[in-house]
Amino acid sequence: MGYHHVDVGEIDPTPDRPSVQRSISDAVGLENVAVNRYEVEPGEAIPLAYHYHDRQEEVFYVLSGTLSVETPGETYDVGADEAFAVEPDSPQRAYVPVSADERAVALVIGAPAVDDVHPYEDA
User: Fold this and answer.
1) Stretch among 7-11, 113-117, 119-123 having the lowest mean pLDDT
2) Could you tell me if 50 and 115 are in contact, meaning their C-beta atoms sit under 8 angstroms apart?
3) Which residue of 8, 48, 101, 108 shows the fewest CB atoms closer than 10 Å?
């Protein structure tokens, strides 16, 4: 058995990201799921690019503020205490618009924890 207790505020942010990302899964050594807390200011995005995954499923759970999730069909506004799930092969980009009045804080969970990301280019 193994247990880990961590103060998320003490996790160093991941460098070179467009918003503040704190990897909970890395801090506690999880291998099968990616768990990240994001603090996204107006004009910032969560991902490095509009993208999709081959196998990974993702859930964006918004803790505060509003997160916009762009898909090829529409853009969804996901508010506090709401979740947005993304299936494999589904392009998306999560961000806070420049015009927003406040930042969004979101817990993002992806499984399996694989590096299967591909940039999405609208055809």
Assistant:
1) 119-123
2) no
3) 101
Q: Where are the domains of the chain?
A: 8-119
CA atoms lying within 13 Å on the CB side of residue 84: 21
Closest CA to 42 of 11, 19, 72: 19
104-111 and 57-64 beta bridge pairing: antiparallel
For 1-50, how does the pLDDT look when each residue is reduced to its tens digit (9 = 90+)? 799 999 999 999 999 999 999 999 999 999 999 999 999 999 999 999 99
Rounded CA-CA distance 72/74 in Å is: 6
DSSP three-state, residue 111: strand
Q: Which residues contact 57 (CB under 8 A, 6 or more apart)?
A: 85, 86, 87, 88, 110, 111
pLDDT at 8: 97
Sign of CA dihedral 11, 57, 4, 26: negative
Provide the whole-model pTM: 0.94
Over 70: is that where the pLDDT of 90 sits?
yes
